[in-house]
Amino acid sequence: MVLAEFDLIRRYFAIHAPQHPFNQLGIGDDCALLNVPADCQLAVTTDTMVENVHFFADADPESLGHKLLAVNLSDLAAMGAEPFAVTLALTLPKVNESWLQAFSKGFMALARQHGVDLIGGDTTSGPLTLTVQAMGVVPRGRALLRSGANVGDSIYVSGQLGNAGLGLKIKQGYVCNTPDQALNAFDRPQPRIAEGLALRGIASACVDISDGLAADLGHILERSNVGACLQWDSLPLSAEVLDYVEQSGDWRMPLTAGDDYELCFAVPADFVGQLPIGSRCVGVIETELGLRIERAGRLETLEAKGYEHFS
Ligand code: ADP
Ligand code: MG
């Protein structure tokens, strides 16, 4: 027998009562009820993943559950917000219990890892479409915006660049002898929540890298009305990504491929000493608008453009 809508929600998503103290009422009524401390601001974001646009039809559902939540938590990380609640809107072509079981497992495991409750959602039939809304808190006035970068600030990134882009190339047929790190980066990005929290009061601007460093740093530059110059030799690249660049000549890949979900942030000189470990300085904010990179003794211009759905 096909599982009815409410049984499906109960079995796979209403697994436990809310744990976080801000979440007074979770799944089961017409709305969830949240109590947010008065000295905090609520940070809210939503992201949708559509079959054949954001993921392949045969994508592993457990990874998909993880990634759907991770990309939303990544936006909260980029604001320096602490996540506590999410809603989930599922549009499913049919009820496939083994798919739902695996999807829910990946989603719930990451939620638990970050102390986040699933407090509601919607379940409908139609072409496979997955939407999360994530909510976090940040002390009033302390969110990390895109608009605060100043000339002379250093530009940093957390983690490495281009691993997820390489993972996608491997899925499309590129042969790499040690593919695990790249595939894992593509399938199971880790939202940089702790790093985002540690950057409050230190970073002057921050963004998460969903569309590639060039495009996402481009957002900081545009909102802050500044430019930037990157140093190729400073980019944190894995041996596999370096191999790919050497073999293909496609040196822009680590800067333009999406899905890394690392943080990119600007730091004034006075605060550089207080940075969390594991981040790398890749360039500097300049007066001259636009984005440049110094590579092999040449100054190259980078298009600050990411994936655009309607172009
Ligand atoms: P309504 O019709 O009042 O909008 P629904 O019948 O859609 O409510 O949902 C019943 C309850 O289950 C609500 O609390 C809703 O938030 C929750 N819910 C529905 N779908 C999901 C889902 N995919 N994940 C989590 N909670 C869900
Ligand atoms: Mg209702």
Poorly predicted regions are none
- CATH topology call of the largest domain: Phosphoribosyl-aminoimidazole Synthetase, Chain A, domain 2
Q: How would a crystallographer describe the biggest sheet?
A: 7 strands, mixed
**Overall number of domains:** 2
Helix tally equals 9
**How many beta strands in the DSSP annotation?**
13
CATH class of the largest domain: Alpha Beta
Q: Which whole number gives the mean pLDDT? A: 95
Structural class: alpha+beta
- Could you say what the CATH architecture of the largest domain is? Alpha-Beta Complex
Order of helices and strands: HEEEHEHEEEHHHEHEHHEEEE
Into which percent range does the helicity of residues fall?
A: 25-40%
Name the beta content range.
Answer: 25-35%
Shape from CA axes? globular
Give the CA-CA distance, first to last residue: 43 Å
Strand order of the largest sheet: 8-10-7-11-9-12-13
How large is the radius of gyration? 20 Å
CATH superfamily of the largest domain: PurM-like C-terminal domain
